[in-house]
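FIELD: query
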Amino acid sequence: MKNNGRPYLDKLNEKVELIKDPLKEYPRPNFVRQSYFSLNGEWELEVNKVDELPLIYSKKIIVPFALEAPLSGVNYLVEDDDFIYYHKNFEFHKSRKNNRVLLNFDGIDMFSWIYLNGKFVGNHEGGYTKFHFDITDFINEGNNELIIKVRDISDTSYHLRGKQTLNPTGYFYTTSSGIYKPVWIEEVPTEYIENVKFIIHYDESIVEVRVDTKENGVAGLFLDGKYYNIKTNSKNLIKLTNPHPWSYDDPFLYHVKVTYLSDTIESYFGFRKIEIKEGKKHRKGIYLNNKRIILNGLLDQGYYYLGNLTPKSYDDYENEIKALKELGYNTLRKHIKIECDTFYYLCDKYGMLVIQDFVNGGTPYKFKEVVFPRLFTAFINKESWIKEGMFGRESNEGKEEFIKESKEIVDTLYNYPSIIIYTIFNEAWGEFEPSKVYKIFKEYDSSRLYDTASGWVDSKNSDFYSVHSYTIPARKRYDKKYHRPYVLTETGGISYKVKGHSFFKGSFGHGYAHSTKTFNRKYFKLYKKFIKQMKKGKLNGVIYTEVSDCEKEYNGIYTFDRKVLKLNKEKLMKLNKKIEDIY
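FIELD: result
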């Protein structure tokens, strides 16, 4: 093998203690059913280059941690020609004889084939989308044998991959191959609730409720102390009395129960609207519930020390969101990665706005194609410069896959009020026909705003004038052509390695600091200039790079293990309060 099981981390400052039953809590807080059987925990594993189910399994792995993560107990860098085989025996007993049984996978990267009790159940493509199978006809009452075959070709093709690469360097990171999100079983009645969607009509004080079922029928809805009979597979408009809006400073949630025949689910929604509209001096701004806001946030890569793309526990999500709220930030830009559902629920609960990136794909990017536009923005900052086949999008299959899987992501995340913006393309990574793609998604989900090509070649159709700037971030900018709100969607990125909390050789960043004092001086000097532009209404948001260090990238305000805040806490809270008080 080329990598010989080379470890993920260059060094560890602690012994890795494996978790017997990780992420055991119910994994879908926005669609809760009182049936849950977790398959997380220890599985048997075999990795080889043979496309044939093995007879023996020589290793153990802790699911749902990727093979590359130390918390998996494997700590092995998967190659693009490897086949990964998971094996688990488990006992299962139905609670009711006539129930259907669904097997849920929240994330397997990248191709997977499922076998239960010696029979092929189905397969799935895509590392960032959920899927499930009805296994009623495959599962036994009692002992069961589950085998999952996986292949991850990472960045060797056009498939969605985020920042994962087989050769980690700088701001591209180690792959997360195989199962990296929860695997679980639920029972449902023969006729059950497939989906619930809440569409907010803010100015009319109306919530539109849609309950999807296989056959048309009547569902019961418990909402705000009242009971409603509503038609399934239909539009149901419910007028709220004195509706309580959801916002980042008052994250009120309406809790809902839906019944259909013998099925019951619990859910929630936030009553809010997000829009761009004109303010003083004819300058457009971002408005949440008719109040102008400034996005004051951080780039969030979603990589975790020892767990790679997977947190050690859901407490990692909660502690981080609460800490960032305490510091005074109001926004996270979740960077080309989709989190477990619990992350978005906690953002809803605590009032953290989310800019959710779609996941980039495309064939391997060429240096000139992704850097040239940035160097010569003044001359080629127009959509006509983007030609067919540029930015790793030579194939129609790759384009179609991007649209299809991104729509699946939008469907999955629709009911989370904290998500106010979608980033369609990050810079030029896998970009194609940006204005056309903008129109597709704006029509598909009009309850969000869209940053079409974050920080890069400007697109005619985008809700923002979006800029990434690390060299001259405080330069005054304004969208003179389309008059859209200017947002600095990536900036800062000052690299500072904290002794005892740095786990990778080398150091990538946008400028460097060699002491806590210097790091703080550079950060606060930068924001002093930003605040002047914010007060004049010219700058509508700043996303600083980033929440924490990530592998060789030491740009975080926290270290990779989240144990050290590099900034002065009291001074940072005062600064963020100044930004909050501008409007």
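FIELD: remark
The CA atoms of residues 215 and 389 lie 44 Å apart.
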